[in-house]
TrEMBL record, chain B:
InterPro entries to which the protein is assigned, alphabetical: DUF1989, UAAP2
Domain DUF1989: 18-184
UniProt protein name: Urea carboxylase-associated protein 1
Length: 254, 213
């Protein structure tokens, strides 16, 4: 686990943005680029969906991600798998190793039950957003809809599984300043929704912002920790690189 | 867990009763109030199952919402299967196995290449069964989400380690689900030969539907 955040050369930075509490965000990130997510104020549960830009029916698959890696939890060296035996993004750095692959998104009724009615009429632009509606709006911008919203990943959320299969959710265990870096191994459409976690017990809608930086990463080394994580990750990289060859014919960089 | 629903099925004749060979897809609408019974005839056979609202298939089973509703990853008697819109689709009214998986999803040709070896691409898989059945119904890959694996044992250890180990399902293990909405049930009777989920010997299952009385 690395705790020091590497300083970035300004010329490598493509975007540097803040996603406010309640907000939704999407971006296409090309192979080799890195999304750094800095949890500046210790928010709990940033929900994320991932798609292959070129074939959006290929998408993040929570089941394959945990099954291929034989672990329900994610950390540095692990990867986000698609349903096609390929890696969408690798976790090249992770300061907190506390992410939730199981609990999914909130809906309007979940947020209202927890925090009360927070509609536009009474809250104006601080209205209480929820993940499902955020996802519908954001995937809608790419011509997608309800059928394209699959079980999501919740970053910075401390949801564990007990020995009898029970869910154990703990609030405020992810410190402010935690960060994770996801390197695109394919051209990826990322959708983010920054709302409360479905298992949160806080009755105020007080979601903190996160900082999002996209930068050009280094070439993937032969001994990259995500490549050599296991024989399975090595095969997944073979599959992924073979797939991406179609976009680099003629030497062009995609 | 909400109150138990008890249904005495011993008095009824099934309105549907078929035995499905290993490695086959199957789909059928179970109407609201009807009961689907799945019998693992020879034991240790994973039955990969998806659920859709038969009247609007964009509403479908959601593993996360099912898990969060009962705050537990295992399906057992009393488990409500929850849709992506938060509605209860079916409820488990009896179960003699006690262990069914919600995390592992379905096997696919492509994931087999990663999990086992690159040359496994030609082996039969649940995802191919699903794509065939969905294609026959005019649906497609966008309709595939995480499924339930009935009779499959995937415990999670303290460090998150996920094991696909020998099932605890014995010959004749039975689960019964009552439909709370008209539910399109899509099954792949798992053909996986690379791990113990089918005891390395995929076998038939019996599917019966009972009318409410």
């Amino acid at each position: 686990m690395s705790t020091m955040m590497k300083p970035l050369s300004p010329e490598t930075i493509l975007f540097d943005e803040v996603l406010p509490g309640g907000g939704r965000w999407s971006k296409i990130i090309r192979k080799g680029q890195v999304l750094r997510i800095l949890n500046t104020e210790a928010t709990s549960g940033l929900s994320a969906l991932f798609y292959n830009v070129h074939e959006r029916t290929e998408r993040y698959n929570a089941a394959d991600t945990v099954k291929v890696q034989y672990n329900a939890y994610l950390k540095q060296g692990k990867a986000l798998y698609s349903d096609m035996g390929r890696i969408l993004m690798s976790i090249i750095t992770d300061s907190c190793e506390t992410h939730d692959t199981v609990c999914g998104y909130t809906m309007a009724a979940d947020v209202e039950k927890l925090c009360g009615l927070g509609n536009y009429q009474n809250k104006r632009n601080c209205y209480y957003k929820n993940d499902f509606d955020n996802f519908l709006v954001e995937v809608g911008k790419y011509g997608m809809g309800r059928r394209d919203i699959m079980p999501c990943l919740n970053l910075f959320a401390d949801a564990k599984i007990g020995e009898r299969g029970e869910l154990i959710f703990r609030e405020d265990t992810v410190p402010a300043g935690s960060y994770i870096e996801l390197r695109a191994e394919m051209d990826v459409l990322i959708i983010l929704s920054n709302t409360v976690h479905i298992l949160s017990s806080k009755d105020t809608y007080d979601v903190k912002p996160v900082s999002l930086t996209v930068y050009q990463g280094d070439a993937v080394a032969e001994d990259d920790i995500c490549v050599i994580d296991s024989e399975r990750s090595e095969r997944a990289f073979v599959n992924t690189r073979n797939y991406m060859k179609q976009f680099t014919q003629g030497g062009g960089n995609v | 867990m909400s109150e138990m629903i008890t249904v005495d099925l011993t008095l009824n004749e099934p309105i549907y009763d078929e035995t499905i060979p290993a490695g086959e897809p199957w789909y059928h609408v179970v109407k609201a109030g009807e009961v689907l019974r799945i019998v693992d005839l020879e034991g240790c056979q994973a039955v990969d199952t998806l659920f859709y609202n038969a009247n609007d298939v964009t509403e479908r089973y959601s593993a996360p919402q099912t898990i969060v509703r009962q705050k537990n990853i295992f399906v057992e008697t009393g488990t409500e299967l929850v849709s992506n819109l938060g509605n209860t689709m079916m409820k488990v009214i009896s179960d003699t196995c006690g262990r069914h998986d919600t995390l592992g999803g379905a096997c696919s040709a492509e994931s087999n290449t990663v999990r086992y070896a690159l040359d496994k691409l030609d082996m039969h898989s649940c995802r191919d069964n699903y794509l065939l059945a969905l294609g026959q119904m005019g649906m497609d890959k966008r309709d595939l989400v995480s499924n339930i694996n009935f009779f499959m044992n995937v415990p999670v250890e303290a460090d998150g380690t996920l094991a696909i180990i020998d099932g605890i399902s014995t010959p004749g293990s039975t689960i019964e689900l009552i439909a709370l909405m008209d539910t399109l049930v899509l099954i792949s009777n798992c053909p996986q030969l690379n791990n113990p989920c089918n005891a390395f010997n995929p076998t038939p299952v019996r599917l019966s539907i009972y009318k409410p009385f």
